[in-house]
Fold this sequence. Notes:
Blueprint: H1 2-27, E1 36-40, H2 82-89, E2 112-114, H3 124-129, H4 135-153, H5 155-164, E3 166-170, H6 173-177, H7 184-187, H8 192-207, E4 228-232, H9 241-247, H10 256-279, E5 284-288, H11 291-299, H12 349-362
Parallel strand pairs: 1-2, 1-3, 3-4, 4-5
Helix pairs in contact: 2-12, 4-5, 8-10
Family: Belongs to the 'GDSL' lipolytic enzyme family.
Signal peptide: 1-29
GO molecular function: hydrolase activity, acting on ester bonds
Amino acid sequence: MENHHSRYYLTFLLPVLALVVVVLNVSNAQPLVPALFIFGDSVVDVGNNNQLHTIVKANFPPYGRDFKNHRSTGRFCNGKLASDFTAENLGFTSYPPPYLNLRVKGNNLLNGANFASAASGYYDFTAKLWDAIPLSQQLEHYKECQNILVEVAGQSNASSIISGAIHLVSAGNSDFIQNYYINPLLNKVYTADQFSDILIQHYANFIQACFPHISTLQHNLYALGARRIGVTTLPPMGCVPAAITLFGSDSNVCVARLNTDALNFNMKLNSTSESLLRNLPGLKLVILDIYQPLYELVTKPSENGFFEARKACCGTGLVETAILCNKDSIGTCANASEYVFWDGFHPSESANKVLADDLIAAGISLIS
């Protein structure tokens, strides 16, 4: 019995002690890692889509109305993203800049960069449907970024920055909601389970193998020197306001089928990641669960300090996102902090803060 209690207290205390270390380091104005590099979709895009010929943009009001200087940056939110809060939690005083929007790269890349593109995913054709940047192309940008880092900091320093940096990956949501569920060329050919398998193969390729249409093995995160990688799970897709509106058959509750697909994908993501960990020396790979914390906010909003979880703040709150969420959208709420979702697909700044606090606790091994 004593051993059982000892194990229990160790299990409880170690994350607490680690968090104390985090707080102490951050309070000393010392970032916990040299840089933060971000890949993925609209959940983490900070403006890379601004210059693209795509309708999937957020660089206009009311997006960003609660951000610094009330500025629309391209973030799909009223304010900060979970990745912004994560950067703050890691001790950075600025956020990784959108790689494509940087006029001058050089020194601006020393603390990391953001390569994410709204409507991108593990499946390259998802991005191509929406004229976004596929993950394979985000890797090309990262390789280019590394070459610039070598020029600015020297080979040795650049290698240290890359191996010590956290690489955050957030994808998969657009593959389902903005492709599979609305694309008969996919959903009539593959079951959701089969499509999950395809996505997981692309995920594994992104971390360690090579994309079939790229001739060199150097185009994956591990081969490019990444050793600390955090990957977010799929959220409860069936609880997103637009998903309930589009796929919920006039119901106001989460769409069980979509949530089941997300949970199934997340199980495969976990098992594949465990396999990658076993086979790649020196790799720290952590799966960061977004599903459960967001599900808690949606199903128990008042217990978590929120007023509304079915409708988003922007417009009717039922479906609007990107160009449909604009300054003329009728019904946009006055106080987004009371809402779990800002637009039909994306969490509000307040919800992002809750998610980010969970992320830092879950990802503690990446900084220890």
